[in-house]
Write a structure and sequence with these properties.
Layout lengths: L1 E4 L9 E7 L3 E5 L4 E5 L4 E6 L2 E6 L10 H5 L1
Antiparallel strand pairs: 1-2, 1-5, 2-3, 3-4, 5-6
Length: 72
């Protein structure tokens, strides 16, 4: 899934593909390297099938495998 970090000045202009996710971080593969970005305090713009979604990282602070349980 493609993502762009919107809010944190020290992570500005990071855009790429999410290659790993933990409870508190995303690992984003950019054209040059992989960067680990904390979810808390950042906003992310996700692109999926030509649709944009802006989500605050604090809203998704849980393990990826637990996300299914929270949606139900």
């Amino acid at each position: 899934m493609d993502v762009e970090v919107l809010s944190a000045p020290c992570y500005a202009w990071i855009a790429g593909r999410i290659v790993d996710e933990t409870k508190n971080t995303f690992t984003v593969a950019t054209a040059r390297s992989e960067r680990m970005v904390p979810k808390k305090g950042n906003q992310f713009k996700f692109m999926h099938h030509n649709e944009e979604f802006v989500i605050a990282g604090s809203e998704i602070l849980h393990r990826p495998e637990d996300r299914i349980k929270k949606v139900r």
